[in-house]
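@channel sequence for tomorrow's demo:
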Amino acid sequence: MREARVEGPAGSVPGGTETADAEEPDRGGTTLPRQGLSKPPPTLLKAGTSAAVALCLATALAHVLLVFLHVAPPNPLSRQYSRQVDAWVFPLFEQNWRLFAPDPESVNRQISARTRHTTPDGRVHVSGWFDLSGVDDSAVRHDVFPSHTAQNMLRRAWSSYLETHGGDDRPRSQRALMMQKYLTDIAADRMTDQRGGTFESVQLRVITVPIAAPAEGPGPGSSAAAPKPVETRYLPWWKVTSRGN
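structure tokens (generated this afternoon):
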């Protein structure tokens, strides 16, 4: 005969035994402990997420600090870490005022490239010139929303090269070496995409055509400005990582 148990107001059974912490038998007779009383440890996913968030915050703070040192007036801190600041900012995060005070182009430039490949038997093959700037101009002309890459990558790489090298193509600073490699990589990558083939060196040719000044109206003292000559500049052969098959 089964004895009925009656719980009191405090949730206890006769004899003073509480039922809250009692173990419950399952149907097979095995006693199972109650669950949900202990908090599980943090999972690996949570730890990875926390580490990723901390890394992103640290990178963002470092980026803001380096860009601030780049745009701030010269100070002892920016002079001391100028090499690290330039390595981070150039060429992707360069800051200037050209968005608000644009400097329009006064010349048209045609930047072309050709490649050189030496076969195992010693023969040298030089490709024909390929107009890199023409590809960008075509992409801008026939696109309602042209990309920043098509509009400015090659043009800004060349203008930065001029600022750091002058007219003798001799790098005199770490930034000059960086801009030379940047321009070389752009030319090599585009030649690989457009023509393929195998090559180990690349050369650039820049044809500069001045934009004629607007003609003055007729009248006494008016004179037409003499047109400036077209300038053709050949850069040295630069070695690159072997491209193609």
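heads up for whoever presents: The beta strands are 12-13, 17-18, 24-25, 31-32, 107-118, 124-126, 130-131, 199-210, 231-234, 238-243.
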